[in-house]
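Exam review. A common question shows you a sequence with its structure tokens and asks you to describe the fold in words. Practice with the pair below. Do the first one on your own.
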Amino acid sequence: MSAQPTGPIGAPERQRDAERTRAEILDIATAEFADRGYAGARVDEIAARTRTTKRMIYYYFGSKEGLYVAVLERAYQGIRALEQQLDVDHLDPARAMRALAELTFDHHESHPAFIRLVSIENIHHAEHLRTSPILPGLAAPAVDVLGRILERGRRAGLFREDVDALDVHMVISSFCIFRTANRHTFQAIFDRDLLDPGRRDHYRRMLGDLVLEYLTAHVGRA
């Protein structure tokens, strides 16, 4: 019988196994924390729904809070990665800004767990997210992409001068998060489903129009 791979030969496969296990834990933990909140989520339940143990979860993440922070980090890294991959430098500033707004719209609609996690962490005053060692890097991509588009728009005389990247990020995020986070209460009060597929294109276009109307307001006027 041949010996099992050891040393450098077996290391890559063990590393892949560890990465797959870690990813599986994060997938299940994302759903658990999004559904039950930080206080209500149970590590025992997460372990039971994976192919690992509670002990291994603590080995990978240190604690329940460590797991929760890792879930938050991965959630934010997902949208930041998409923003970085968006090729907007070849587009005119207005089209580039609309493309970025539409990307956020699409992401938030297709990742309702992300919206719930953000809402839950705000209830906790971001006390867990503030402990993340990669927190500074979670903001930079969004600000960098928006900043480049804004600068090109200003140089072209299209965009107003008194707006920074975080202003625009807030406007885009507000629309996209409200649409998902407040879907049920809005429907209960006004009898309109904000995620109705029949209205999707309308809302997607509305977001781009709102951002561009704001950025171009008063430009060229005394």
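Now try the second one, then compare your answer with the model answer below.
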Amino acid sequence: MPIRVLLVDDEPLLRMAFTMVLDAQADMEPVGEAGDGAEAVRLARELRPDVVLMDVRMPGTDGIEATERIVAESPESKVLILTTFDLDEYAFAGLRAGASGFLLKNALPQELLAAIRCVAAGDAVVAPRITRLLLENFAHHLPSGTDRGQDDRLGRLTAREREVLTEVGRGLSNTEIAAALHLAEATVKTHLNRILVKLELRDRVQAVVFAYETRLVRPK
């Protein structure tokens, strides 16, 4: 089955360009277009796309609010944020809202296609270190007064899983975590999968956000 993509952008010409790129792929199908966040939420509910390509700066309901609502109402649809700068507040807010990653609007077509395929497969498309930098740069937006361990979900983790989550939050790759904790890389992957299930998180990006929100990892 082709990857079904909903395009959300307030610029019709940009939506047309994305549609042309997607139409040329045998494994992708653009199923709808929206010019604002409210329409995106409605179409996501009706069309159930695999991936929503979401602009963040739009009049009315912006892409951040739309992402939150789509993640809540249509959890099977993964959101890929389109942003102008890779370390801006919109990218940060999009990740906190539940997006599975973000992509620069000037990305090459092959980068766009690779990102869509990655998100559709259940992975995140933001490098761990970029996610860490985003959270450190915009940590003042995180809830204040939250102490480590206050979130009840942390109690679901074993001591080893908490160690792995801490290293994920610090921006380490699976290979680096394996070296730091003297584990096999396959074991790290197993722990990470269990962490996502226990914490009811969508992907690695959300795990990093969770680690910072609960102060398991603190910004430098």
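Model answer, second protein: Confidence is low (pLDDT under 50) at residues 145-149. The longest strand covers residues 28-34. Full marks require stating both points clearly.
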